Amino acid sequence: MTADNGTEIHDYQRIEGRTGGRFYFARPYHSWERGSSENANGLIRQYLPKGTSMAALSQQRCNAIAQKLNQRPRKRLGFKTPLECYYNLSQCCTSNLMSGGVISFKLPRELSQ
Fold first, then answer.
1. Which of 27, 37, 63, 112 could form a disulfide linkage to 107, CB 3.0–4.6 angstroms apart?
2. Looking at the 3D structure of the chain, how many domains does it have?
Protein backbone atom coordinates (compact mmCIF):
# COMPACT_ATOMS: atom_id res chain seq x y z
CA MET A 1 0.00 0.00 0.00
CA THR A 2 1.27 3.43 -0.85
CA ALA A 3 0.22 5.99 1.74
CA ASP A 4 0.31 9.70 2.26
CA ASN A 5 2.79 10.84 4.87
CA GLY A 6 0.08 12.07 7.22
CA THR A 7 -0.31 11.22 10.88
CA GLU A 8 -3.31 8.98 10.09
CA ILE A 9 -0.86 6.21 9.14
CA HIS A 10 1.18 6.42 12.35
CA ASP A 11 0.29 2.82 13.27
CA TYR A 12 1.31 1.32 9.92
CA GLN A 13 3.69 -1.25 11.46
CA ARG A 14 0.86 -2.88 13.40
CA ILE A 15 -1.24 -3.05 10.22
CA GLU A 16 1.69 -4.58 8.32
CA GLY A 17 2.12 -7.19 11.06
CA ARG A 18 -1.54 -8.16 11.05
CA THR A 19 -2.03 -8.25 7.28
CA GLY A 20 1.37 -9.26 5.96
CA GLY A 21 1.13 -6.30 3.58
CA ARG A 22 3.75 -3.60 3.16
CA PHE A 23 3.38 0.18 3.36
CA TYR A 24 5.38 2.41 1.07
CA PHE A 25 5.62 6.13 1.70
CA ALA A 26 5.92 8.60 -1.12
CA ARG A 27 8.28 11.52 -0.95
CA PRO A 28 6.66 14.85 -0.05
CA TYR A 29 5.25 16.72 -3.07
CA HIS A 30 5.55 13.62 -5.32
CA SER A 31 1.83 12.86 -5.73
CA TRP A 32 2.52 10.67 -8.79
CA GLU A 33 4.20 8.16 -6.44
CA ARG A 34 0.86 7.44 -4.77
CA GLY A 35 -1.58 7.29 -7.65
CA SER A 36 -4.25 5.13 -6.07
CA SER A 37 -4.44 7.23 -2.91
CA GLU A 38 -4.62 10.41 -5.00
CA ASN A 39 -7.44 8.83 -7.03
CA ALA A 40 -9.28 7.84 -3.84
CA ASN A 41 -8.82 11.35 -2.45
CA GLY A 42 -10.35 12.77 -5.64
CA LEU A 43 -13.34 10.44 -5.35
CA ILE A 44 -13.84 11.33 -1.69
CA ARG A 45 -13.63 15.06 -2.56
CA GLN A 46 -16.86 14.62 -4.57
CA TYR A 47 -18.59 14.14 -1.22
CA LEU A 48 -16.32 16.20 1.03
CA PRO A 49 -14.95 19.19 -0.88
CA LYS A 50 -11.52 20.47 0.08
CA GLY A 51 -11.78 22.74 3.12
CA THR A 52 -14.79 20.89 4.54
CA SER A 53 -14.69 20.80 8.33
CA MET A 54 -14.42 17.30 9.73
CA ALA A 55 -15.83 18.45 13.08
CA ALA A 56 -19.41 17.48 12.20
CA LEU A 57 -18.52 14.39 10.12
CA SER A 58 -19.88 11.20 11.64
CA GLN A 59 -18.65 7.63 11.22
CA GLN A 60 -22.08 6.89 9.71
CA ARG A 61 -21.44 9.49 6.97
CA CYS A 62 -17.93 8.04 6.36
CA ASN A 63 -19.47 4.59 5.98
CA ALA A 64 -22.11 5.90 3.55
CA ILE A 65 -19.45 7.56 1.37
CA ALA A 66 -17.29 4.42 1.42
CA GLN A 67 -20.29 2.30 0.45
CA LYS A 68 -21.12 4.55 -2.52
CA LEU A 69 -17.51 4.52 -3.71
CA ASN A 70 -17.17 0.75 -3.31
CA GLN A 71 -20.30 0.25 -5.41
CA ARG A 72 -19.03 2.50 -8.22
CA PRO A 73 -17.79 0.62 -11.33
CA ARG A 74 -14.15 1.27 -12.26
CA LYS A 75 -12.64 1.12 -15.73
CA ARG A 76 -9.46 -0.33 -14.21
CA LEU A 77 -11.50 -3.24 -12.84
CA GLY A 78 -13.20 -4.03 -16.15
CA PHE A 79 -16.19 -1.93 -15.09
CA LYS A 80 -16.78 -4.11 -12.06
CA THR A 81 -17.11 -2.50 -8.66
CA PRO A 82 -14.40 -2.79 -6.00
CA LEU A 83 -16.85 -4.82 -3.89
CA GLU A 84 -17.49 -7.27 -6.72
CA CYS A 85 -13.77 -7.79 -7.09
CA TYR A 86 -13.20 -8.04 -3.36
CA TYR A 87 -15.71 -10.86 -3.04
CA ASN A 88 -14.75 -12.55 -6.33
CA LEU A 89 -10.96 -12.29 -6.42
CA SER A 90 -10.77 -15.01 -9.07
CA GLN A 91 -12.56 -12.69 -11.52
CA CYS A 92 -10.36 -9.65 -10.91
CA CYS A 93 -6.62 -9.35 -10.83
CA THR A 94 -5.41 -8.71 -7.28
CA SER A 95 -3.10 -5.93 -8.45
CA ASN A 96 -6.04 -4.22 -10.15
CA LEU A 97 -8.05 -4.51 -6.95
CA MET A 98 -5.29 -2.90 -4.95
CA SER A 99 -4.91 -0.05 -7.44
CA GLY A 100 -8.68 0.24 -7.99
CA GLY A 101 -9.14 0.10 -4.26
CA VAL A 102 -11.84 -0.93 -1.84
CA ILE A 103 -12.22 2.26 0.14
CA SER A 104 -12.59 2.30 3.88
CA PHE A 105 -11.91 5.13 6.25
CA LYS A 106 -12.47 5.78 9.89
CA LEU A 107 -12.54 8.99 11.79
CA PRO A 108 -9.69 9.55 14.19
CA ARG A 109 -10.82 8.85 17.77
CA GLU A 110 -10.70 12.51 18.74
CA LEU A 111 -13.22 13.36 15.99
CA SER A 112 -15.53 10.37 16.43
CA GLN A 113 -16.33 11.01 20.11
1. 112
2. 1
